Amino acid sequence: NAGVTQTPKFQVLKTGQSMTLQCAQDMNHEYMSWYRQDPGMGLRLIHYSVGAGITDQGEVPNGYNVSRSTTEDFPLRLLSAAPSQTSVYFCASSLGLAGELFFGEGSRLTVL
Amino acid sequence: AQKITQTQPGMFVQEKEAVTLDCTYDTSDQSYGLFWYKQPSSGEMIFLIYQGSYDEQNATEGRYSLNFQKARKSANLVISASQLGDSAMYFCAMRVASDNYGQNFVFGPGTRLSVLP
Fold first, then answer.
1. Distance (Å, rounded) from C-alpha B19 to C-alpha B15?
2. Do A45 and B106 touch (CB under 8 A)?
3. Which of A76, A91, B33, B75 could tie B95 with a disulfide, CB 3.0–4.6 Å?
4. Of B23, B29, B64, B105, which to mutate for an interface test with A (greatest number of A Cβ within 10 Å)?
5. What pLDDT does B97 receive?
6. What pLDDT, on a 0 to 100 scale, did the predictor assign at position A98?
7. Strand pairing partners for A87?
8. A41 touching B, CB under 8 A?
9. Residues A33, A48: contact at Cβ < 8 Å?
10. Site from A54, A101, A102 to mutate, B interface, most B CB atoms within 10 angstroms
11. What is the bridge-based pairing of β-strands A64-66 and A76-78?
């Protein structure tokens, strides 16, 4: 049972480069989300989706894009990386309005 | 605004003792859910326990219990008989209705628990 799979686990970028963090879940969850974790700030919501074709912004959406073309996949795109985007990123999913969030293992991104 | 407050950045507890991690929340929603997650040094997020806003009984899961005081808007996590493996960061989280679609989860800043042998 794979659950939520994130790739890559580690990435180093230069300022201005672009990249995509991949997230896939095999639990048929409608709700998927991306968080960033920074020291002392807990997890902050970047973007979320309640189903294929439906996305919305969270607390810290600037500099990130998302799309949801299938129930399984929810990639996070950094269009022009900045040092302020150095963080640990978590993808998470849940079954609709009930149940807990299931998390991926996290992706550590460093922007130089 | 929806917010979770965890006022204890760090806590120490002796092995085999009980410990309470504080969590207060702010929401105007009547229906919400409260969660606790554990993040060990390896980095993964582990779900511990859940309490619904309409649940009258405090939730329990093994050595974890949630002390839910709705009027005070608090949802403290109690860990009984602490073990060395309980040393980790603990996050309190709340599921609330989002502005546009369905639901969202709000997390507190976390409490780092250290269990002493």
1. 10
2. yes
3. B33
4. B105
5. 77
6. 65
7. A109
8. yes
9. yes
10. A101
11. antiparallel
**Six-digit token string for B37:** 């997650």
Confidence class for position B67, pLDDT limits 50, 70, 90: very high
Chain B residues contacting A via beta carbons under 8 Å: 4, 6, 9, 35, 37, 43-45, 47, 50, 91, 93, 98, 100-110
Per-residue confidence at B81, pLDDT binned at 50, 70, 90? very high
Predicted local distance difference test score (pLDDT) of residue B29: 87
First to last CA, chain A: 36
User: Which residues from chain B sit within 8 angstroms of residue A44, using beta carbons?
Assistant: 107
Closest-CA distance, A56 to chain B, in angstroms, reads 8
- Tell the burial category of B117 from Cβ atoms under 10 Å away from its Cβ (0-12, 13-18, 19+): exposed
Average pLDDT over every residue of A89-99 = 85
pLDDT for A42 equals 87
Kindly list the distances between the CA atom of residue B11 and the CA atoms of A48, B78, B86, B88, in Å, as whole numbers in the listed order. Answer: 32, 13, 12, 10
Tell which residue, A94, A95, A90, A104, has the closest CA to residue A47.
A90
Q: What is the pLDDT, as a whole number, of residue A1?
A: 67
What's the rounded Cα separation, in Å, for the pair B77 and A8? Answer: 33
A71 touches chain B (CB under 8 A): no
Predicted confidence at residue B9, as pLDDT, reads: 93
Of B4, B100, B102, the CB nearest to A31: B102
